Structures are given as C-alpha cells and as structure tokens.
C-alpha cells in the first residue's frame, strides 16, 4: 500500500500589534522606516500543519471506533447478548443503529439515558463519560469541517463552528488531552458494556 498526496490549501497569517512596538520587539527596521516581517512560511510551520492534518485524521478514525463501541452497547442493551444469527438483530444494527439519521449526538444522549435509568456508572465515571463524549464529538466536527491554519507567533490552530466560530490551538498540551480523553473514554465504555451484560445475567 502506498501513501497518497491530495491537493490542499495552507493558510498562514502574522499578528502585528500596530502602535505597541517600542523598538524592543521588532528589530529589522530599514533605513526608510520599513519593518521587515521575515518569512511567514517556513519548513517547520509547514511541518506543523502536516502533523496537525495527520492527527486530525486519527481523531476521525478514533471517533469512528468510539462510535462502534457505543453501537455495540446499544445493540446489546436493546436486543440482548449475541446468541447466534437473529434477523431482528441484523435489521436493528444495519437499518437503525448505523442509519445516517441516528447521529453520534443522538447515540450519546441515548447512552446517557441508559446509564441514568440503570445507575450503571457512578458519579465521577458518569460525569467523565458525558464530558468525554461531548469533547470527542466537538473535536470530530472540528477536524471534519474546520480549517487548519498557522498564525505567527501563536502557532497552529483549527478554526471551526460549534454553535459559534471557534479557534482551537493545537499545542502539545492539547494533543496530550486528546490522547487521554480517547483512552479514558474507551475504558469507561468497557465498564458500561460489562454493566449491561450483567443486566442479562440476573
């Protein structure tokens, strides 16, 4: 298998605070009083955007994985544990749970209702799961529909809409939060799945 290269557009910008320079921050002033801004685009900035795009793709795939776990939980809850081929199960999985009208947001709210109705998760885990799923949905939408840009000196960010126009700076701290959120969310969903399985053992 080979990697592919597709056409993309990169957006670079530079923040300049007019009237706030005392000569200590801008060094390159010509004899004519012109300010040399230097290179807005360089190899390091382009690399940051490339890494952000790769990480964004991983977010999309990881969100699909989380959604598949949620779908499995919903099928187990409504149809019961797998006990061989069942046409009702097949129809429910393919035509209901995986339907395009059955959105991630709706699945998230349904999971929340199931957890609350059966007290399947305790305080911190329940609150964390709701928070994680909200963040994951927001990040998925940001990288699916937003634009990755670079601002000098602030760095790489993604601009997207989530109720309103937002900017999210893609720092190492942000990527750390992404990793822990997906890992911890998957752990809690496994606990929830085990809890639903236990409902059928009683």
Explain this structure:
- The chain has a 4-stranded mixed β-sheet, with helices on one face.
- It has one domain (42-199).
- The protein is 56% helix and 11% strand.
- With 202 residues, the chain is an alpha+beta fold.
Which terms summarize this structure?
202 residues; alpha+beta
Query: pLDDT under 50 segments (min length 5)?
Result: none
Percent helix among the residues? 55-70%
How many strand elements? 4
User: Could you tell me the strand content as a percent range?
Assistant: 5-15%
Tell me the series of helices and strands, N- to C-terminal. EHHHHEEEH
Distance between the termini: 49 Å
Counted by DSSP, the helix tally is 5
Count of the domains:
1
What class would the helix/strand composition place it in?
A: alpha+beta
How would a crystallographer describe the biggest sheet? 4 strands, mixed
Shape: elongated
Strand order of the largest sheet: 1-2-3-4
Radius of gyration, in Å, reads 23 Å
The chain-level mean pLDDT equals 83
Oligomer: single chain
Task: Give the helices and strands, then pairings.
Layout: E1 11-14, H1 43-79, H2 87-97, H3 104-118, H4 123-145, E2 147-152, E3 155-161, E4 165-169, H5 172-199
Parallel strand pairs: 1-2
Antiparallel strand pairs: 2-3, 3-4
């Amino acid at each position: 298998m080979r990697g592919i290269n597709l056409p993309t557009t990169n957006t670079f910008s530079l923040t300049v605070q007019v009237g706030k320079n005392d000569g200590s921050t801008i060094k390159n002033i010509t004899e004519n009083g012109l300010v040399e801004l230097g290179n807005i685009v360089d190899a390091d900035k382009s690399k940051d955007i490339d890494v952000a795009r790769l990480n964004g793709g991983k977010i999309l795939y990881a969100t699909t994985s989380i959604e598949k776990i949620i779908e499995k939980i919903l099928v187990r809850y409504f149809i019961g544990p797998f006990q061989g081929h069942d046409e009702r199960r097949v129809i429910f999985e393919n035509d209901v749970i995986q339907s395009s009208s059955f959105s991630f947001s709706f699945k998230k709210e349904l999971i929340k209702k199931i957890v609350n109705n059966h007290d399947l998760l305790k305080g911190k885990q329940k609150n964390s799961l709701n928070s994680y799923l909200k963040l994951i949905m927001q990040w998925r939408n940001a990288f699916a529909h937003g634009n990755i840009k670079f601002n000098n000196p602030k760095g790489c960010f993604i601009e997207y809409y989530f109720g309103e126009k937002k900017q999210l700076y893609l720092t190492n701290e942000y990527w750390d939060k992404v990793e822990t959120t997906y890992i911890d969310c998957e752990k809690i969903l496994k606990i929830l799945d085990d809890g639903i399985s236990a409902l059928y053992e009683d």
